[in-house]
Amino acid sequence: MMTVEGYIKTILRPRNGKLALNFLNHLKALGLSKARITKYASHLIALLKTIDFNLEKATKKMLKKL
C-alpha cells in the first residue's frame, strides 16, 4: 500500500492537483490519521481523472453531474 507521499506526484498531474493537495493538507491539519488521508488520496486520483473543469470555479450543478 502506498503512502500519502507516494500519491503526491500522481495527484499533482491532473488539472486540479494543487487544490486536491491543499485538501489533503487540510485533513492533516484537522488531525485525521495518516491511513485515512492515504485512503482519501487514493480516491482523489480517480476523481481528478474524471473532472474536466476547474474546481475553483465549479457550480453545484457541475458537481452533481459527477
What do these coordinates show?
With 66 residues, the protein is mostly helical. The chain has one domain (4-64). Helix content is 67%, strand content 0%. It starts with a helix and ends with a helix. The model has no long low-confidence stretch (mean pLDDT 91).
Strand content: under 5%
Give the CA-based shape. globular
Helix share bin: 55-70%
* Biggest beta-sheet profile: none
Distance between the termini: 27 Å
Descriptive terms for the model:
66 residues, mainly alpha, 67% helix, globular
Short summary:
The chain is mostly helical. It has four helices and no strands.
What topology does this entry show?
Blueprint: H1 4-12, H2 17-29, H3 34-50, H4 60-64
Helix pairs in contact: 1-2, 1-3, 2-3
